[in-house]
Design a protein that fits this description.
The chain is of the alpha+beta class. It contains five helices and seven strands. Strands 1, 2, 3, 4, 5, 6 and 7 form a seven-stranded mixed β-sheet that branches. α3 packs across α5.
Length: about 170
């Protein structure tokens, strides 16, 4: 009987020391501590740009940095006009999206409002980055979803765009 009690006690201590599902997500979180939403959005936006830049430059060799940025189950899609095109998942999806966009420029808007405290930096976050193919005249707003600092989905849409200098006229 004392052996059974000791075994149960040891098992309960082992289970109590194992991380819970919520703790595992926090342990696996790859987002540095930040205080405000604007900081978090900047970090994730630059992370999205880095992932697409690395995917665009992929040369067929193992891509360890891309694998750290992108969850293997991450879903990628693109589209234009009235047709949505599902792409591959994981790193292959990022590479397919980068090749589809042929972007040479990016932009994203900052969080210029009231400094809002971050509630859960490791939870699901959505940000939008626009990628621009200046030679083709295409703009791709892409909504990236992050969890634990890793991309879990990215959905883009092709739009044509025009830009030019403004001429100031007087009446």
């Amino acid at each position: 009987m004392p052996t059974l009690i000791l075994a149960l006690l040891a098992a309960s201590l082992t289970l109590a020391q194992q991380p819970k599902a919520a703790d595992v997500a926090r342990i696996a979180c790859d987002v540095p501590p930040v205080e405000y939403v604007g900081e978090l959005r900047n970090i994730l936006s630059y992370r999205a740009v880095e992932a697409i830049s690395l995917a665009a430059a992929w040369d067929g060799k193992p891509a360890a940095k891309l694998q750290r940025l992108i969850d293997p189950t991450a879903l990628f899609s693109s589209g234009g006009r009235d047709v949505r095109l599902p792409l591959a998942s994981g790193v292959a999806g990022a590479i397919a999206l980068a090749r589809e966009m042929k972007a040479d420029t990016y932009r994203f808007v900052g969080w210029d409002g009231i400094p809002t405290p971050v509630q859960d930096r490791c939870g699901e976050q959505k940000i939008e980055v626009e990628f621009i193919d200046t030679s083709g005249g295409n703009l791709f707003p892409v909504i990236f979803t992050f969890n634990g600092g890793r991309i879990i989905s990215a959905n883009g849409w092709r739009h044509t765009y025009r830009s030019g200098p403004m001429t100031v006229g007087r009446d």
